[in-house]
Amino acid sequence: MAGNDWVNSYLEAILDSEPGNIGRDPAAKSSLLLRERGGFSPTRYFVEEVISGFDETDLFKSWVKAAATRGTQERNTRLENMCWRIWNLARKKKQIEGEEAQSLAKRCLEREKARRDATADMSEDLSEGERVDTVSDISSHGDCARSRMPRISSVDAIEGWASQHKDKKLYIVLISLHGLIRGENMELGRDSDTGGQVKYVVELARALGLMPGVYRVDLLTRQISSPEVDSSYGEPTEMLCPGHSENISENVGESSGAYIVRIPFGPRDKYLEKELLWPYIQEFVDGALSHIVHMSKVLGEQIGSGQPVWPIAIHGHYADAGDSAALLSGTLNVPMVFTGHSLGRDKLEQLLKQGRQSREEINAMYKIMRRIEAEELCLDSSEIIISSTRQEIEGQWCLYDGFDVILERKLRARIRRGVSCYGRFMPRTFIIPPGMEFNHVVDGDLDGDIEGNEEHSASPDPQIWAEIMRFFTNPRKPMILALARPDPKKNIVMLVKAFGECRALRELANLTLIMGNRDAIDEMSSTSASVLTAVLKLIDKYDLYGQVAYPKHHRQSDVPDIYRLAAKTKGVFINPAFIEPFGLTLIEAASHGLPIVATKNGGPVDIHKVLDNGLLVDPHDQQDIANALLKLVAERQLWARCRQNGLRNIHLFSWPEHCKTYLSRLTSCRPRHPQWQRTHQEAFDAPEPDSPNDSLRDIQDISLNLKLSLDGEKAEEENNVVDGGLDSVEGKLENAAMRLPKGVVRATVKANEQGNNSSSKFLLPRRRKPIFVVAVDCDTDDERIGVIQRVLEVVRRAGPPGSGLILSTSLTISEVYSLLTSRGVLPTDFDAFICSSGSDIYYPSSVSEEFELPFTLDLDYRSHIEYRWGGEDLRRTLVRWAASIVDNSGQGEEEQSVVAEDEQRSSTYCLAFSVKNPERVPPIRELRKLMRIQALRCHVLYTHGGSELHVIPVLASRSQALRYLYIRWGVELSNMVVLVGEDGDTDYEGILGGVHKTVILQGLCSAATPSRIRSGRSYPLEDVVAFDSPNIVRTEADSIELGLSKLGVLSR
Q1: Is 107 helix (H, G, I), strand (E, B) or coil?
Q2: Which of 42, 106, 442, 536 makes the best surface tag, with the fewest CB within 10 Å?
Q3: DSSP letters along 462-517, please?
């Protein structure tokens, strides 16, 4: 036990402190075997109290077994083994703490260096006044003088908003994937996924649906048709019935209101925990995309004069929904908003501090690294980050590479001054406390004497009161109420200990524990069962029968009655969690006139600043918890003052107040929407043609009628028909001449000339069934063209009439053209080309026979993906980084550059770098981290078997390009068949998932430098791709027809 002297000393002190040791042999006193010597109370204290600090729950069970063993030798052996487990646990914990300390120090150094680099690029200094963020956040409630806060009713709040926004008709999309979500009788506490977040998103959707100016709110979640859960979770749509309000807008259409929309994804007959949803995220995105596109058209007919009404924002809740919202936001080109609720990096640090699991074990159990990467993507993609408390921003979001409070303030100050940010972007953070529904609060509870109001009430007592009262010997004593699921982080065990060991508190009060719903402890999850078992053992240990209530069942509608019962007895509500992201139950309790005792870690600090209705405690200090509870229960004047303060200030947390602030933030975002114009709507809606061969490659004129500026701003037009002359288009194209391949520019201009001088229409290949997408990332051109030829041959021979073809690749369009012509493949054999890793889309052009490259560039797509693109400023940073990567392995030789800019393969939205020695460059995640720390938002990936590095816009990828074509062409994603190899570029995982069908060609790309490409992922591919999906099949590379036959997409 060398190096752990503190453990030795503690164990020896325990043995020495026992009365039986006095006068014994000194040699025996130093024994570390914890042998049976009579009294074991110090050792019991060590096991129960000290070991609990390590959160090793099995040790107490070992102690119980050892103490119950009759044989002295066997008991001593068990105790000795337990002693060594304690020592190993302590050593493991110290090792993890040391590693985390080194990691934290490294992170601080990297962040400081990034700040210096960013400041060096942003050469204009800020004045002292600009260094302070002058944009006020909604969280400033706590800094206001409470005496000046007027009482504002919900009616007044809505009427004020209505007078300013009565002409708006907004469409808002909320996403919350995990848990069981329904509008009524929510099963909160059923499991760890069905908790406060479920209640929050449902009430937010309902409240937004009642706000003037909001036409429709969709809350998207998972459809679950499983015998494990109620059938209501399998209903595709559920309207959230609004409460009574006189302020509902008069302009109500048949699709207006708030709805829960359930999208089927993942196994249809299983309810999955949130950690198991990751492989099915892409499938949800495709399903949600179909719903939003359909609803946008429906709303367009109702309120948009025939034009689609796109969402004003897509709001993701939690990491899984945030990841989905980022992909949807990029596809639809609409603003994204994100609320984390609980953050992965903070949870990882808390688990590591406990010392029970290594980082690898935590990742295996919680898929924590995939969650953290999703949260980093949310920072890259979001316009707004909404937090409940300032602590969440300053204490949790600052753990992420993509967020820095100091850099955010500098960037916002530069934006206000109209000064360039040099390609750097940071999401705006706003603190908006969750709202509270007051329709369940009895008016009498808000003012006047509680007992008097209850005594004169004509209604019978709620049934839940009897369920709780039956536990108590003296039910008239004040009730200490805790309402939380049985989770270790909720710290319920510490609460019971504090209550059990404080005699004065036991004499004055009862304790009520509402710990979710259960039928049998054995049927609960192991974590919940262990917490509940520990609580029951403590009740028995302290003989708390008749003083503690722990009912097995309650309904969501019973919760207000439980608060009322606690207030009637002049009780106290307590939230003793180790850390609480916000603390919605504290607001609910305050609205019923209950003073609070809450943890000082997290959101309760901000709530207490506003309400001033209780005391904050250290959740790790048992005595502090007991003293605070005793103080509020015993001092009647303090209790009354806290009750009055809470009721006086609770209006600041009402849903109308929340929604007013929320909508004001949303409407401040720069409006974005799909960037193309439907030039001929009748072509899109044309009846099915007789010939199945009408497609993009069969039309003589494929003019895109480009009418968009290169900065992504849409031209102001009243109609869908582009009737401008060549001057309006040619001028914009000439500005891009230096950015596009020479031949492509000429072809694009020529296409527009013919499009404006003819009456032909741009017919879309929407009736292609199916569309085959060749996305095989081969290392050599021979392999690549071989696959293309085999696919062409199979499609021509056995494919359905009118099948479509798309080539998706990391090659440039020039390389694609050279590759195709080298084997006599015509560009017109394809409908589209997704090039440069998804940063460009080209279409074959029949107007460029006299030009170099027969392709037309989709400039709409470029304007679609340019969001947060750093451009030349990003390129300069990457060039500096490339210069710093050198190979100094040779003895006596000069340092050799490892990474160099590849100008031939670079384009406006793809910065290419050649990698001379793939083994000498850092993993892709390190480069992503570097870019995020400097607030440069981009998508970094290795291509060409690891010999090429591509940096493209953050929301650009080959999978996103397919979704763009789905929106533009109107084809069904389920009609797409994607062919890939066994491995591929860094974006390989994104291509596999979704509702499209996938054929994995075995034997191709299996040796594509996996050490470079796979190292970009900090999680196994199986964690994020459902390889057991019926939409994914495997076949040999020379048996493509067999694989397609398995999917049923061939006609013969």
Answers
A1: helix
A2: 106
A3: PHHHHHHHTT-SSTTS-EEEEE--S-GGG-HHHHHHHHHH-HHHHHH-EEEEE---
Task: Supply 402's token pair.
Answer: 């993509």
Q: For 829-889, what is the HEC assignment?
A: HCCEEEEHHHCEEEEECCCCCCCCCCEEECHHHHHHHCCCCCHHHHHHHHHHHHHHCEECC
Q: Are residues 210 and 264 in the same domain?
A: yes
**At 228, which helix (H) or strand (E)?**
none
CA–CA dist 743, 660 (Å, integer): 52
Task: Judge if the upstream peptide bond of residue 770 is cis by omega within 30 degrees of 0.
Answer: yes
Query: Is 6 contained in some domain?
Result: no
Both 48 and 182 in a single domain?
A: no
Claim to verify: residue 519 and residue 580 sit in the same structural domain: yes
Residue 293 token pair = 């596109």
CA–CA separation, 694 and 714 (whole Å)? 29
Phi and psi angles of residue 601, each rounded to the nearest 5 degrees, phi first: -105, 110
Cα→Cα distances 53→50, 86, 621, Å: 5, 11, 12
Q: Is the pLDDT of residue 509 over 90?
A: yes
d(CA 239, CA 248): 16
Q: How many domains does the chain have?
A: 4
Decide: 286 and 973 in contact? Cβ < 8 Å. Answer: yes
Closest CA to 607 of 575, 571, 632, 633: 575
DSSP string of 570-603, one letter each residue: T-EEEE--S-BSS-HHHHHHHHTT--EEEESSBT
- Most confident range (mean pLDDT) of 34-48, 142-156, 1002-1016 is 1002-1016
Burial label for 365, CB within 10 Å (0-12, 13-18, 19+), is exposed
Using one digit for the tens of pLDDT, what is the confidence trace for 50-61? 444 444 445 555
Buried b (16+ CB within 10 A) or exposed e, 13-45: ebbeebeebeeeeeeeeebeebebeeebeebee
Is residue 12 one of the residues assigned to a domain?
no
Whole-number Å distance between alpha carbons of 307 and 355: 57
Kindly report the backbone phi and psi dihedral angles of residue 5, in degrees, each rounded to the nearest multiple of 5, phi listed first.
Answer: -60, -30
Examine residue 612 and state whether it is found in any structural domain, yes or no: yes
> What domain range is 64 assigned to?
44-116
Q: Which two tokens stand for residue 423?
A: 């390609």
- Residue carrying structure tokens 């009788």: 185
Separation CA 400–CA 382 (nearest Å): 14
- Please answer whether residues 15 and 35 qualify as being in contact, where contact means their C-beta atoms are separated by less than 8 angstroms: no
Question: What is this structure's pTM?
Answer: 0.77
3 Rama sector, left if φ>0, alpha if ψ -120 to 50, beta otherwise = left
First CA to last CA across the chain, in angstroms? 73
Q: Answer yes or no: do 412 and 515 share one domain.
A: no
CATH number of the domain where residue 276 is located: 3.40.50.2000
Among 202-216, 492-506, 674-688, whose mean pLDDT is lowest?
674-688
246 by DSSP, 3-state: which?
coil
